[in-house]
Hints:
By secondary structure, the protein is an alpha+beta fold.
Amino acid sequence: MPANALNAEIFCPVCGSKDFHKQSQSIEHKLTMSVTFMVSSNSFTCNLCHMVGDFSNANDDTFTNAKNIAVAEFATKAINSLNAMGYTNSALARALGLSPRTLHKWKAGACSNSGLALLKILIEFPFIIEVAANDFDRQYILKTHPNYITKN
């Protein structure tokens, strides 16, 4: 497809040609642990020099936008699930040593990969919240969850 049908600003970065064709594909990316998200990306092939790449430089923005949406959706879903289990945001923040504002930011999509990993762990093993609320006391863990502590 000629470039003028797509965008007059797109051209081959090697030879400057505006004669290329576009291919689109959806690619699954891993957010954290088992959480994935899909991104549609474009690849251009120059019909003159056969250079292949993202001539429009739009794939990075598309990836970032899709990742931000996936982060916000996962964090919101995870925190809502923990709330449904009976853990309030205040209790979560207090037990984990976070500010309530941090949880609010996570739900809004400003969650780091380590925050996402923590949320995934808490969803899979919610008893960790109780253990954290008890300052990770060995005696408490031995009494309530003896199978989850080493003998050392």
